[in-house]
Amino acid sequence: MANNWFVMKCGGSTLAALPEPFFAELRQLQESGTIPVIVHGGGPAISSTLEKLGIETEFVNGLRKTNEAVLDVVEMVLSGQINKEIVRKVQQAGAKAVGLSGVDGLLIEAEPVPNAHEVGLVGNVTNVNAGLVRGLIDLGYMPVIAPVGIDARGQRYNINADTAAGAVASRLGVERMIVVTDVPGIMRTVDGEKRVLPQVTVSEIDEMIASGEIYGGMIPKVKAAVQCITGDVREVVIVDGARPGVLTAVLGGEPVGTRIVKA
Ligand SMILES: Nc1ncnc2c1ncn2[C@@H]1O[C@H](COP(=O)(O)OP(=O)(O)O)[C@@H](O)[C@H]1O
Ligand SMILES: CC(=O)N[C@@H](CCC(=O)OP(=O)(O)O)C(=O)O
């Protein structure tokens, strides 16, 4: 089964800063039979390329308004530039990786989000080709997945990377999703001091969104987390990728980052 697999989401905020030892850790995990399935973002790189091309970009509640011109850039940057950059780094560390987007082998099937009238060609996941992921892992490869989805008519969709990672974790039946970002976890100001919360529950998340303590890019992360822990995923852990040994620490049950748990 998928119990020795975990899904790791790497945010665009942190990708360029991930140190070489982070990729060495991925190799060690792969060698020891704890298999990472990587889903990555790349929001800042997409915005920078859109700007260079003079294409306007706008976010509505954390989702990029996407038309066909924007989608061309999203696919080019995510499935091309970022996906291959991660595959190269994993391979440089001595591990085996194959990069795909959700389009390849119908890996991520998608449908328009309910507010498509506002955001355009943005998708939610309807199905994940778990057999393809399993096949790659059986062949000894770490899958590296770009969050571009496709529907039965061949229409592509831009999918928020946190949403895609949560759906992949749910549908693969893994126990754990690790969300690697640029902050040490979910933070809250207590007595005028910013602290990382070691653990939060679904109801605490709802309160923190309502109070504005969780905002911006943290919102799709916690929403994806809440959605997958209502299924088989036992916990979602939000961590800083720059912290040495972070993955092994999380997998070993050490208190790092913020754990989002059912209750
Ligand atoms: N309560 C919170 N604790 C920590 N970070 C938060 C919180 N609320 C909002 N954020 C913001 O979320 C950001 C991470 O989201 P984002 O920039 O989209 O990262 P990524 O590219 O990794 O998906 C943090 O850098 C921080 O600015
Ligand atoms: C619909 C939507 O907003 N898609 C995102 C996909 C990339 C992403 O989510 O990257 P991060 O994880 O780095 O934020 C975008 O276009 O930026």
From TrEMBL:
Protein name per the record: Acetylglutamate kinase
UniProt keyword Amino-acid biosynthesis, yes or no: yes
Compartments where found: Cytoplasm
Keywords linked to the UniProt accession: Amino-acid biosynthesis, Arginine biosynthesis, ATP-binding, Cytoplasm, Kinase, Nucleotide-binding, Transferase
Site (Transition state stabilizer): 9, 221
Record EC number: 2.7.2.8
Residues annotated for substrate binding in this entry: 42-43, 64, 158
Species for this entry: Paenibacillus thermoaerophilus
Pathway the protein takes part in: Amino-acid biosynthesis; L-arginine biosynthesis; N(2)-acetyl-L-ornithine from L-glutamate: step 2/4
Origin superkingdom: Bacteria
One annotated GO molecular function: acetylglutamate kinase activity
Function of the protein: Catalyzes the ATP-dependent phosphorylation of N-acetyl-L-glutamate.
UniProt record similarity statement: Belongs to the acetylglutamate kinase family. ArgB subfamily.
Catalytic activity: N-acetyl-L-glutamate + ATP = N-acetyl-L-glutamyl 5-phosphate + ADP
Domain Aspartate/glutamate/uridylate kinase: 5-240
Pfam family, one: AA_kinase
InterPro entries assigned to the protein according to its UniProt record, in alphabetical order: AceGlu_kinase-like_sf, AcgluKinase_fam, ArgB, Asp/Glu/Uridylate_kinase
